[in-house]
Amino acid sequence: MTDGKILVTHISESDADEAIRKIKKVNEKSGPFDLIIVYSVSCDEIAKINTDGLPQLLIITSHENDNISESKKISETVTVLYNFGTYRLANGITISYLTYSSEILQEQKDTILDNFDKIDSQVDILVTKEWGIPISDRFGRLSGNDMIDELAKKLQARYHFAFSDEENFFELEPFKLNNDRLSRFLNIPKYGSGKKWAYAFKMSVGDNDDEEEPEPTNLIANPYTNITKRSNKRSLDTETEGLVEQSHNPPSNGKKSETKKIRTILPTNCHFCFSNPNLEDHMIISIGKLVYLTTAKGPLSVPKGDMDMSGHCLIIPIEHIPKLDPIKNAELSQSILAYESSLVKMNYIKFDMCTIVFEIQSERSIHFHKQVVPIPKYLVLKFNAALDRQVHFNNEKFTRNAKLDFQCYDSYSSKEYSDVINNQSNNYLQFTIYETPQSNPKIYLATFNASETIDLQFGRRVLAFLLNLPRRVKWNSPTCLQTKQQESAETEKFQKAYKDYDISLVES
Ligand SMILES: [Zn+2]
């Protein structure tokens, strides 16, 4: 049995040059290492940097294409691992990795679990972007994903590295997994955070693994046992930042009371609430009495024809509500519709475009909003086919998702439609198709049960297919994300175009 010396680092593309230079220094001073693992959200630039003098380098990163588990050898010593999978080094060390954020984990759940189901042995190192839930809780952090728990328990890695906290270093005391295997968990922040962004350790290589490692004195109980049921409740949430609310069940018969945690997003942490100090206010287009309008982060659509901006925007109630009650929130509903039709007018008159609006009405949402996307006239007729295709995928391929069955209505005032939306026990996905500002829109609505998992990207997926923009399904993909300057520029263009239609200017 021999020891392998390994260095795990976290860098971002913008600092890649500098960081690789630092890694070379670390390798000279504390190495030489047998293996260096570089975690980076994207890696086009990193792959071009000269890594001469470094040992075997594994770059673990995301790829903008869907569902690809891929490894690519780009030089004698450098290999890039994309998205998720398991990689075995020549010396026998195995590394499993999963770079998706919670939102995409949920979307791709089947594909990912299928991939890891094929692994029938333990691995040495697990690299994930996200944390598991029990460890996240332990540090009082507010994120975590139950799929990471599943993987951690299944793969039984000796080291688990996570990277979602880019600013802080965390290390959990060692613990023993079910089979008595010693395991450690760490979160490595980014180079430039001022924290420990490179972590060096030795690991025995060979069949005997950790047999000879003495038991650490600071051993803690396996964090993955005794997990509260809470994790099931939140499989729909993708916005995982928020405050933990605790409720205590009354103790019965002197038994210890169980604490059940439910996560709720409070307005100070909500992406869409004005009371959140981190609100992205450079993206606000217009603020009305009850509603405001922003450009979309990582917009789906791209400039087309006369339109020199993406045109994708969000209509958001100022009040923090998960779902719209058309009776209780009648004034708000009217306001939202007024914004909607002002946008439909702008798209049609100014840019010769039709408009599609999509939304999720669910008691388990965080802050209700509608997404508005301009669609070229010649494509709007193909909406039905695009929807059918995605429904087919959703219902046949992603079997863990709620089955969707869309009903079509001829107008917002149709009685059948009102019956569905006025019933507050209904949760639903909805598309509204506006061919012109004058004609009644066509509404496609599918209800689902609040306990079912739905594909939160379904709306975006349908429109990305319709617009033939397959790389733009995910708002947070490198293709879609914009810099703050680009976002501000988009918002300015939007404001300029929307000026003549802006109803906040005429609202009392
Ligand atoms: Zn909110």
Could you explain how this protein is built, in words?
This is YGR093W. It comes from Saccharomyces arboricola (strain H-6 / AS 2.3317 / CBS 10644) (Yeast). With 508 residues, the chain is of the alpha+beta class. It folds into three domains: 2-229, Metallo-dependent phosphatases (Purple Acid Phosphatase, chain A, domain 2, 4-Layer Sandwich), CATH 3.60.21.10; 231-267, no CATH class; 279-505, no CATH class. It contains twelve helices and 23 strands. It has helices spanning 16-30, 102-107, 109-117, 133-138, 146-155, 230-233, 330-351, 377-380, 383-396, 415-422, 458-466, 484-498, and strands at 2-10, 35-39, 56-61, 70-73, 78-82, 84-88, 94-98, 125-128, 159-162, 170-171, 175-176, 182-187, 198-205, 243-248, 259-264, 284-287, 291-295, 313-317, 353-361, 370-376, 407-409, 427-434, 442-448. Strands 16-17-18-20-19-22-23-21 form an eight-stranded antiparallel beta sheet, with helices on both faces. Strands 6, 7, 8, 9, 10, 11 and 12 form a seven-stranded mixed beta sheet that branches. β4 and β5 form a beta hairpin. The termini are far apart.
